[in-house]
Design goal:
- The chain folds into four domains: 155 residues, no CATH class; 134 residues, no CATH class; 115 residues, no CATH class; 330 residues, no CATH class.
- The chain is 36% helix and 15% strand.
- The strands form eight sheets. The chain has a seven-stranded mixed sheet with strand order 15-16-26-24-23-22-17.
- Strand 10 and strand 11 form a beta hairpin.
- The chain is globular and about 105 Å long.
């Protein structure tokens, strides 16, 4: 409900102020926390959070979760129940009568507060005449006295104040849980959220600079696209380093690292920041107060600095995106004559889609949470984990919340909380819940789960965490069951197994491809060629893996160089059609790799050293290196502890016949290629494991030929030409597989992830049989047991394939029964051993 402008202070007109506050001015004796009535609560807390999807309600989600993992469903309740049972208290003057029109919410760090709970003090008997007794409510201050006085000044005449330490009964676990479940309603409906950054202090020179700077901005009404001092050369904050030191100090506050504070920041519509200043005066305290708009102004100026480290730049980017959206929306809503077309078509005017669930889990669990400070250390850590799980559900917009804790629940260790959330993600059909690549979850009973921790690397490479991957269909949940056999948890689901061509027909050109690839890589390092970022399709971190090979003293230079050689040899084996088809799928990221340039790269008469002396040759090879770096960087799941030392490239193909081979047919020792089949040249390299030699598809023939005139060749060179006989859409891909399981691994894709929309996700599961020759346990004689094949999940990876591979996988995923299930058998996937 909008208030008249006279009902609260005109804070929006002053983007930044210097406040001088006498601590003795604070008087809390006239403040009290009162319970808001149901009608007022409904008016103050309308549901502003967007729904996750049109048909996504609590009953549907809990029903799907119950079918998938019945043991997890009992831990959740519909969020509407929490809102209905929520007790809303607001702090106001004891003399205030009536109902508040709105309220101010305080965001602060619990580690700086007095952890006492509110209490009432009763005057001693005889202390007052006529036997009177005076009762005064005393509650602890969440900040310093001067800071709290600054907070109270933000409250208007008909406004209340909310902060959890006083407005939530800290001794009632049920009330605390219900408040946590509905915390987004409180902070998103507050007129303003005041952030108290009381763990830092502004230095005197920074205060002097701001005092002079205020005059320029005191009455300036700026938008995100109208920022004074932006676009200067050199950047304004480089000219005024004091300004940058101030912002750097603010961003260094622990407030930005706390999970609850970060969530409160994201939920708020309007922000006011309070920062104390260093002062020698024991009576008067100075504070800087600035709005979210001025904070955005500082962030935008800082973003122009070129020497920022990656963590600082990532934090700036995230905050700029959030505050920029809020500022744009606020200016549009304040416009006296907004254009109907702009309101309906502008992205920032529409309801924002909720964040992608699995990356949100990773982001929140990377932040800090202190838990209930009144609990012992171990229980406090468990409480902090539960807080992060609650924040994740709250921020996601899902219509469910965690129930209050009970003695019958699993302990809230971090991996148990992650297990809960990932199973919720699977029930809501989030494909990323099947694509997490972090360390495996270790549960409270010591068992290893088939689930892995989500990481910041999960998700499409070009998406921020706000972008959602397309959900898989409801029918894809059919056949998915998460259960336990009493020893460990497993998931049972239909799979599409890929073929490993090297096991049926080993490549006869392994040595040729390795020699040619090594020559390319050695000369590229010698010429100091860089992997050039040619479009936004590349992430800058993708290209770093190549830069490490230039420093011979780098501890990973040799191993990274080796994986580049291996990957390039696979590309030579796959042929020019595969390379061109892959390039076409990258949205023009490799402009130098034209069809003519690819023909040159595959021409065996090419004198590589001479080619690299030409500008067009360097541009072509630089693009090739960027492609290699991208395939390697995205293909190796670095977050799970793997590296180029543990994984190497493997060529896989779409099954040409259905049904998929049974596990005992796929895992036959007679099909393995012995290391002796590799050439002597390849075996002499200590960096290339001999067992990886069969990782190449036999689709090429080598023949002698005359040297083309365009590329004269010396007589000492071997005259070979690679002839690829397969069509452009033959359906093959590269995946990085572990060396340790070379002889037993299989590659499979869950049927729910076979659609082309999931191409960039780590959807390929690397499996090994639980028992030799068959997946069933020894002694499992029952017919039902013989229809179940058990596997261990050794990792996941991204498949870098051509269009034929993507289409073939999609066709295989649409098949049913024996075609996709492996001969009609059910597949149970367990976590790795130990």
């Amino acid at each position: 409900m909008a208030l008249p402008s006279s009902s609260f202070p005109h804070h929006t007109q002053n983007h930044i102020e210097i406040l001088d506050i006498d601590e003795d001015e604070l008087d809390t004796s006239n403040l009290t926390a009162h319970v808001v009535g149901e009608d007022a609560k409904a008016r103050l807390l309308p549901d502003q959070h967007p729904r996750t999807r049109q048909n996504d309600d609590a009953d549907t989600l809990l029903r799907d979760l119950g079918r998938l993992a019945p043991s997890v469903t009992k831990d959740f309740i519909p969020k509407r129940v929490a809102k209905k049972k929520l007790t809303l208290r607001l702090i106001n003057d004891t003399e205030f009568a009536g109902e508040e029109d709105t309220f101010v919410a305080l965001s602060y760090c619990w580690n700086k507060v007095n952890h006492d709970i509110p209490r009432k003090e009763v005057s001693p008997v005889g202390g007052l005449p006529f036997g009177w007794v005076k009762t005064v409510e005393q509650f602890p201050l969440p900040t310093s006295a001067a800071m709290f006085e600054a907070v109270l000044r933000e409250k208007g005449e008909k406004e209340g104040l909310w902060f959890d330490q006083v407005c939530v009964n800290q001794e009632d676990e049920n009330e605390k849980s219900l408040t946590v479940a509905a915390i987004d309603l409180i902070y998103s409906n507050a007129r303003v959220v005041v952030a108290a950054l009381d763990d830092i202090a502004v230095e005197e020179d920074e205060l002097d600079f701001l005092t002079q700077y205020i005059d320029q901005y005191d009455t300036f009404d700026f938008q995100s696209d109208q920022q004074p001092n932006r676009g200067l050369h050199p950047p304004f904050m480089q000219q005024e380093p004091t300004f940058w030191s101030l912002l750097d100090r603010i961003l260094g506050s622990v407030w930005f690292e706390r999970a609850w504070c970060a969530h409160e920041l994201r939920m708020a519509r309007n922000h006011v920041f309070l920062v104390p200043c260093h002062s020698d005066d024991d009576e008067t305290y100075t504070f800087i107060k600035f709005s979210g708009s001025f904070f955005l102004h500082m962030l935008l100026l800082a973003s122009e600095l070129v020497n920022l480290q990656a963590p600082a730049r990532n934090k700036l980017t995230s905050l700029i995106e959030h505050f920029g959206t809020l500022t744009t929306q606020r200016h549009r809503s304040d416009s006296p004559n907004p254009s109907p077309r702009s309101i309906s078509t502008s992205p920032s005017s529409r309801i924002r889609e909720p964040p992608a669930f699995v990356p949100l889990i990773s982001q929140i669990f990377s932040l800090k949470a202190g838990g209930n400070p009144l609990l012992p250390e171990y229980l406090r850590r468990l409480d902090a984990n539960r807080d992060k799980a609650c924040i994740t559900l709250n921020a996601s917009g899902l219509p469910i919340a965690l129930k209050p804790t009970s003695r019958f629940q699993r302990p809230n260790i971090e991996d148990e909380c992650l297990r809960q959330l990932l199973l919720v993600g699977l029930a809501m059909r989030d494909p990323l819940s099947l694509c997490t690549t972090g360390p495996v979850l270790r549960l409270h009973d010591g068992s290893v789960s088939w689930l892995s921790k989500p990481t910041e690397l999960n998700g499409p490479p070009n998406s921020e965490f706000q972008v959602r991957a397309p959900d898989f269909h409801v029918e894809d949940l059919e056949g998915l069951v998460c259960s336990s056999d009493g020893r460990a948890e497993y998931i049972q689901l239909p799979l599409l197994f890929l073929e490993l061509p090297h096991r049926s027909t080993p490549s006869t050109h392994f040595a040729t491809h390795i020699h040619r690839a090594r020559t390319f890589i050695d000369l590229s390092i010698q010429f100091q060629l860089q992997a050039q970022r040619q479009s936004t399709w590349h992430r800058q971190q993708d290209l770093h893996v190549w830069s490490y090979t230039h420093n011979a003293s780098h501890p990973r230079a040799a191993s990274l160089k080796n994986v580049f050689v291996q990957t390039l040899s696979c590309i030579f084996e796959l042929g020019p059609h595969w390379l061109l088809d892959t390039i076409q799928s990258t949205q023009g990221a490799y402009t130098s790799l034209t069809p003519q340039a690819v023909d040159v790269l595959y021409n065996p008469h090419l004198i590589i050293q001479n080619y690299l002396l030409r500008p067009d040759g360097q541009a072509c090879v630089s693009s090739l290196l960027a492609l290699l770096a991208t395939i390697i960087s995205r293909g190796i799941t670095w977050s799970s502890g793997t590296s180029e030392r543990t994984h190497g490239p493997l060529i896989v193909s779409v099954p040409h016949t259905s049904p998929v081979l049974l596990p005992q047919q796929l895992v036959s020792p007679t099909q393995y290629l012995s290391p002796s089949s590799a050439s002597q040249g390849s075996a002499s390299s200590p960096l290339y494991p001999p067992q990886l030699s069969p990782y190449l598809h036999p689709n090429s023939q080598i023949r002698s030929t005359a040297s083309p005139q365009a590329f004269p060749q010396t007589q000492t060179q071997t005259q070979m030409q690679i002839s690829t006989r397969s069509p452009a859409r033959e359906g093959r891909a590269i995946i990085f597989a572990p060396y340790a399981h070379t002889k037993t691994l299989l590659i499979a894709i869950p049927r729910a992830l076979t659609k082309a929309t999931y191409t960039e996700l780590p959807r390929a599961w690397i499996l090994t049989p639980m028992h030799q020759y068959t997946g069933t346990a020894p002694g499992s004689a029952s017919p039902a047991a013989k229809q179940v094949v058990c596997w261990r999940l050794q990792g996941k990876g991204v498949l870098a394939g051509d269009a034929g591979f993507v289409e073939g996988v999609g066709r295989g995923g649409r098949s049913s029964g024996e075609e996709s299930g492996g001969g009609g058998r059910s597949h149970r996937i367990y976590g790795p051993e130990g």
